[in-house]
Amino acid sequence: MFERFTDEAKQAVVSAQQQARDLRADRIEPVHLLLALAAVPGPGREAIEAAGLDHHRLRTAAERSGTALDADALAALGIDLDQVRAATEATFGPGALDGGAAPRGHLRFTAGSKKALELSLRLAMRRPGRRVIDSGCLLHGVLSLADPVVVRVLHQLDGDPDVLRARIEPDVA
Amino acid sequence: MATPTHDVTAAAAADDPAVGLRAVRALRELAERLEVLQVASARRRGWSWQQIADALGVTRQAAHKKHAHGRKDD
Fold it and tell me: Tens of pLDDT along A70-95?
């Protein structure tokens, strides 16, 4: 399906792999696609930035609550992840708590990420004229999923997935 | 956003499955990572797989299968 992707959309898909790796995920989740779209120049990034968001802020929010080791969820249970991390690092060395899950090799897309790619393809096919998938379509696909992690990360930054999606709607729908 | 102190029971016994399941997943992930660190530490100190299994409340086979992979001391 990637033959219909624009160069920057392809770059975003490649970057998603790196975003996942940087967050020590073992799969490419929709939130990693979102981070990639914020990093790679193109219509997707323009929409994200027009909404007052950027890669750095999204990445910080994803680190906080978009990974399996979910600091906010643990905080709600009365567990201070920063304290646990400091204690384990004091005993077992730097990165001890985060080193165990270091991903290796080629990361695969989760079912949610595949679905996002499908949705963006479907959207591009509906578009009159050139049937190519640009990073705006990709962003639209990611936001259409209502993936809980993506929604959480956006909410944390006072962003609304539907508002952001509507922002790119006129271009792609 | 997190509310560290007053929402402890709210998260643990949340009525909303999304909140409750997220809390369970976070706990499981933390427990898994601590287990990896502690089992490795116990092995370095010469604990047997049986001792580690007893401490974790699992069978020796389960502890060995989960943690022994790729370790040259096994």
Answer: 888 898 889 999 999 999 999 998 88
Name the token pair of A98.
């985060």
- Residue A57 and residue A47: Cα distance in Å, rounded? 15
From the list B4, B19, B30, which residue is nearest A78 (CB)? Answer: B4
pLDDT, average across residues A32-39: 97
Separation in Å, CA A85 to CA A58, A60, A74, A79, B41: 22, 17, 12, 11, 16
- According to CATH, the topology of domain A2-67+108-172 is Double Clp-N motif (1.10.1780)
Band of the pLDDT at B7, cuts 50, 70, 90?
A: low
Can you tell me the distance from the alpha carbon of A86 to that of A82, in angstroms, rounded to the nearest whole number?
A: 6
* Residue keyed to tokens 């600091």: A71
Share of chain A above pLDDT 70, in %: 92
- Chain A residues whose CB is inside 8 A of the B23 CB are 73, 76-77
Using the Cα atoms of residue A146, residue A43, residue A158 and residue B22 in order, give the sign of their dihedral. Answer: positive
**Interchain proximity B33–A97, CB inside 8 Å:** yes
Cα separation, B37 vs B33, whole angstroms: 6
Smallest CA–CA distance, residue A171 to chain B, in Å, is: 33
Per-residue tokens: B59:
């069978």
If you measure CA to CA, which chain A residue comes closest to B29? A69
Per-residue b or e along B12-43, where b marks 16 or more CB atoms closer than 10 Å to that residue's CB:
eebeeeebbebbbebbebbeebebbbbbeebb
How many CA atoms does the CB half-sphere of A12 hold within 13 Å? 34
A145 lies within 8 A of chain B by CB:
no
